[in-house]
Amino acid sequence: MHPADLKTTLRAVRFDQNRLTIEDIVDIAQGRASATLSDDPAFLACIARGADFLDRLLREDGTVYGVTTGYGDSCTVTVPPELVAELPHHLYTYHGCGLGENFDPAQTRAILASRLASLSKGFSGVSVELLLQITRLLDAGLLPIIPSEGSVGASGDLTPLSYLAAVMCGEREVWRDGVQVPAAQALREAGITPLRLRPKEGLAIMNGTAVMTALACMAYDRAEYLTQLCTRITAMASYTLDGNAHHFDEVLFSVKPHPGMQQIAAWLRSDLPTDQWERNGKRLQDRYSIRCAPHVIGVLADAMPFFRSSIENELNSANDNPLIDPDGERVLHGGHFYGGHIAFAMDGMKNAVANLSDLLDRQMALMVDSRYNHGLPTNLSGATGPRAAINHGLKALQISVSAWTAEALKLTMPASVFSRSTECHNQDKVSMGTIAARDCLRVLELTEQVVAALLITVRQGVWLRERANPEVPPHAAINAMMDALCKDIAPVVEDRRLDPDLRLLIQRIRDQAWKLYV
């Protein structure tokens, strides 16, 4: 089905001056929602007032940065009136120097939606037609091919957003149904007329934080799910290790009042009834990767409200320069393109997420080691009898988990402290927010790989523990998770390649296939 045909069946996200959420952007990115520009007359009039005010300034020979002057350090260069109309074309043209992997389709949809959100606030001096052009690209499934590298995060995401500006004008290339097509051809065949940008519109599209904000929305959604999934894995690891469920006691956690950490402990209590501990006389204290799991996962859980606030405030901001006050009829020169809040959120998030990798890596090391797994086979091998001698279970998988964890931990160096002075020292302090967001997504990817490996591990471990201690079955929540995992992956009895299982589980994680805690 063509994207335009899907629009009537999707939730419509309305773009105007009202507040949007992370979920709105993620749903558009994942194809669960469509982007619709408000048709409210008051909103449309507000957008028009900004553009009309700029037009009047130009007629009255007003000086406006980026409209009648050059850009950045070239702001002292006056553009001759007869060349003002060509300036936006030059802006997106000379910024066409991005490299690296291209953003994937979901990320690109999020970028378009994030830029539309900011421009819809009514302080960018753009026309209604420009806003509609972004919705047309989304409706038609024409996604600008945007290289991921080349932004320092102030003045916003100039280079990557130049690819959006160019495509709106019928230049460069788009993805259409997975095929690369020249933008001019794609727009023509979709019945979309290329824009001719008005004097400030190139700057309005490019001089903002849309790329880093879009990536942050995607990162938040993935990190939020990992808090739950890592908690469920911890419960299954505790059961595998014949652990002590009293470590998650409600009174114990009531005296350390971090609400996110307390929530993780409560979820673990729901998965691990304590009556089994008394019945089996388990040891007094488990190792830290089990006992302190709420304290590790809880750091991320407690940070998530701050991350949400920072990301959604940026999403709902007018963040280009200069801003246009259509009612006060003023041009306001500032620095709202600076992505420091996103940079800090992404640096913090990748640190907390990488710690999840490290936690699970340590849990796996206990589960596969017969010195610490309390009676289970070495490497959790399911082979028995003479064939046990030639089977190695999860030995290599544990090595891979260690590699992925090490790479995730290596990437936790904060990007936001690596500001570089650029553009003749006009941009002498920059946010590096886009690099921080890309790093965070890579840490999430590596952590999801670790999580996939741990799902195989706990599926194997719970199966072996039930076989070793049939008198103590797992609680209902763990049983339900086991049933779901067993539909995808068989126990490892004879050695087999595991990458197909890992890839399937990674897709399940990305799809958030399991409903874990209410």
Average pLDDT metric: 93
- CATH class (first level) name of the largest domain: Mainly Alpha
| Rg from alpha-carbon coordinates | 27 Å
Number of helices: 20
Name of the CATH homologous superfamily of the largest domain: Fumarase/aspartase (Central domain)
Strand order of the largest sheet: 4-6-7
Please trace the helix and strand order, writing H or E for each element.
HEHEHHEHHEEHEEHHHHHHHHEEHHHHH
Biggest β-sheet description: 3 strands, antiparallel
What characteristic shape results from the CA principal axes? elongated
Oligomer: single chain
Our measurement of the CA-to-CA distance between the termini, rounded to an integer number of angstroms, reads 34 Å
| Number of individual domains | 2
What portion of the residues fall into strands of 2 or more residues?
5-15%
Polypeptide structure, described:
This protein has 518 residues and is mainly alpha-helical. Strand 8 (323-325) and strand 9 form a beta hairpin. The protein has helices at 3-6, 22-29, 41-59, 87-94, 105-119, 128-140, 158-168, 183-189, 201-206, 210-240, 250-254, 259-271, 275-280, 288-291, 293-315, 340-368, 395-410, 433-468, 476-488, 499-511, and strands at 11-15, 33-37, 99-102, 142-144, 147-149, 173-176, 179-182, 323-325, 330-332. The two termini are 34 Å apart.
